[in-house]
Amino acid sequence: MEPPSEFVHWMFATGFLLLGLCLLAQAIVGDEVWRRRSWRAYLWPGLIFLMGLLMWPVMVFFTNSTVHMLAHGSWAQVMMLAGASELGLVRGKLHSRYWRLTMPLAFLVSGSAILIHEQNSWYFARSAFLHHLIGWTIVSCAIFPLVATFRPRSTFWRSGFALTFVVLGVMLYCDRDVAPVFGHIASQAGTPHR
Amino acid sequence: MSTQLVSEHAAVRRRTARAWAITTLGPATMLGGVVWAFLQPYRITLLHPHGQGFWWLAIEPPLLVVAAGIVFAFLVAPGVIEDLDAEEHGP
Q1: Is residue A115 within 8 Å of residue A129, measured between CB atoms?
Q2: Domains of chain A, start order
Q3: Nearest Cβ partner for B68 among A18, A33, A37
Q4: Contacts of B21 in chain A (CB under 8 A)
Q5: SS3 state at A181
Q6: Is residue A72 within a helix (H) or strand (E), and if so which, with residue range?
Q7: Does residue A177 surpass a pLDDT of 80?
Q8: pTM of the full structure
Q9: In chain A, which residues have their Cβ closer than 8 Å to the Cβ of B74?
Q10: Per mean pLDDT, which range of A34-48, A52-66, A141-155 is the poorest?
């Protein structure tokens, strides 16, 4: 009953897409309007925290090597940390805006982990290509939450932050277990079956 | 026209643009899923369900995109637009 790994990618892609839509909406209307209903203020931080929590079963059930376990575990921790920090700020338990730096930290740790745990080269297969692409995208897009921490009213940086999750979702949707990328697939990758 | 009227008109136009953007996000996402389904119909396993396992029938990416759009359009967007409107007509 355990789903193949590509299905897990697609489920997380849906979570990232929803997250991106909520963040984009908040960037468009501003914090004052977005937080007029308390449940909405907790929506995307709660979603990030939940996704971090759900990374733990992924770590447990999809561990095919130590480096995979470390990567999945680090994503779980930094996503929960970023989500919890934002929840604390919304609730008023945390006051310093520097807690928002946990988000760029999560980006840097997640991006590095996804790059390090991919053992194959870019054109080995589609999943390898996407791992490299996602990793570099997350690392480079850490600039958006980093600058947004210091310029919280900037629509540009906040929209960039939101769209990073949308792009991440699209890339995760593209993942397939054994598939070629731009016509390339290594002979060791296996036979594409879809 | 007085400068006050011009600035009020500009503010209303900006709010209307924001409301339009929020209203569009959900349907645009749904449309994205539908277009994807037409471009890659083989990813909709409901169209050829025989011999497919549970996960292939339950998790179909283009339908997940449509579902995300529906959730946003019906659960999140209406309240945001209502609050945007309240801000516009508020005291």
Answers
A1: no
A2: 5-189 (1.25.40)
A3: A18
A4: 28
A5: strand
A6: helix A66-91
A7: no
A8: 0.88
A9: none
A10: A52-66
